[in-house]
Amino acid sequence: xxxxxxxxxxxxxxxxxxxxxxxxxxxxxxxxxxxxxxxxxxxxxxxxxxxxxxxxxxxxxxxxxxxxxxxxxxxxxxxxxxxxxxxxxxxxxxxxxxxxxxxxxxxxxxxxxxxxxxxxxxxxxxxxxxxxxxxxxxxxxxxxxxxxxxxxxxxxxxxxxxxxxxxxxxxxxxxxxxxxxxxxxxxxxxxxxxxxxxxxxxxxxxxxxxxxxxxxxxxxxxxxxxxxxxxxxxxxxxxxxxxxxxxxxxxxxxxxxxxxxxxxxxxxxxxxxxxxxxxxxxxxxxxxxxxxxxxxxxxxxxxxxxxxxxxxxxxxxxxxxxxxxxxxxxxxxxxxxxxxxxxxxxxxxxxxxxxxxxxxxxxxxxxxxxxxxxxxxxxxxxxxxxxxxxxxxxxxxxxxxxxxxxxxxxxxxxxxxxxxxxxxxxxxxxxxxxx
Length: 435
Ligand SMILES: [Zn+2]
Hints:
This protein is α/β, with parallel strands linked by helices. It is built from eleven helices and 16 strands.
């Protein structure tokens, strides 16, 4: 029998908890197999292989699967097809549908690994590998919770769905957004959504802050670098923009605090990141050995990433930046700029008394013996599409793993964490689908 940690041993195990605990070897094996498929995005490798694994695992337990390729979505091609899978187990009588959505893609490995990122090394009670915590461990935990639930309660009400979707790491357009656009998250067919992102087993993530990405381009006039007074340097204009950010914008953003329970604490204010800046000559090609030429830059481009709060309106966020740029223009006679919007997502936060929140909160209390922590993510995840396109607001993120390990070398997920969060998911299914 698998061992339980001392703090959780005091909570009595139900038959379903026990069934999940007994499935530990199956859970570890499944997590390792998921990790061993290198679904790196971009470019979006091996999505069909990971869908196939999910199908092979769930079909013997009575799940019916549908494959959906996001034809025409960003990134989809015959070389890199955007495959998604939805598996559904029908109960014996009508009821709600509880849907677990996991993204199957992972980011590239980067440097600094001490284990093979795609071997699924098991060491000291942890499974290591790219995607172990973000979020193949969560996907495996939800699959184990679902199969144990349907074996324990074959005549449950409603239905249990598991989806494996692609491209979350690059915006989710070929994954959850595509499914939402095609009705898969219509509130008439799905009532509760849990996204097992790595938020820790006792935390419920209600939503995320908003995002606005934009590009600012300052314009100048090209001239010979030895006579800069004959030109107009676009980089100096951008320097003035950055100075205005430092003296006017950043202090204002730091004062703006939210009631949203965003973690980490530093993200409970509005933030602005400068993603990139470029002015003047293009970077030389690798291997170019010559010198640069003497030119006054006539263009400088900056991409900004503004994260905003429930208490802010997107229009105000845009107007505030616009005002800062206009102020810069007052002191600089030749200041000209263009502002191009790239992308925006509104903040979202599911209500604490939404049915899925109440069910998971209760399951955490009963299984772990502790009060759940309610959190909001500093960055967005696929909930944005379920909320905005699917118009389904009964959605949270809940899953095993430590968020800080996501995208890092030697990423891992704790086996006991996966077991306990699978038990919380199992109890959640019991409270929503047994009637
Ligand atoms: Zn993730």
